[in-house]
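Take a look at my tokenised protein here and describe the backbone shape.
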Amino acid sequence: MGEDRYLLVANGTWPRDEIWQPLVTNAKRIIACDGAAMKCAEMGVKVDAIIGDMDSIDAAYLETLKKEQSTLLVPRTDQTTNDLVKAMYWAIEQGAEHLDLMAVEGGDSGHQFASMMALCEVPFQSQIHTNTSTVELLQNGVYTNASLPRGTVFSLFAIGEVKGVTIKGSEWDLSSVELLPSTRGLHNATASDTLEITWNSGTILLFLNHRSLL
């Protein structure tokens, strides 16, 4: 539900307007990760909270925020987690039931990969929105999507060992196979009105492209 969605903005490259603007509209609260607050201000996005060690925010802008007191500042100096994960934990503490993450692209490739793996630390459905795709962690054994246009490109990757994977409604269906971390699962496409993925155990990282092949 829209009222339960928290939008977390990392300090990376923003996706296209048609991707991020609906996320802002549907968010109950918007949280900026440290220096992302300045990009939000530049784009006219009002944030509810800024989380991090505050070392990437311009000092003058930070002082302005402190004086205005319209944005909650949540210092987090723990160096064992990045600002995105700190924001995720804080949002969960505030009662978030769905997290949307954006601006994770650009910069160090290790940080980008860490953003994907951060989905493993959330106990409920969360999605990363990039310029080309939506990324989601699947853990419950069943995934069904009846709203995808035919020809939607998707990829799925095993996080560890995943047993009994079955895919229906795609160009290349699978029937009760075992997936291990590898490139298997890259670049499939929907071939019917409903995509269904089931598996017996394990965790899957699903990438859904924004544009179809048709």
Remarks:
- The mean pLDDT is 92.
- Residues 138-212 form a domain with the Rossmann fold fold (CATH 3.40.50.10240).
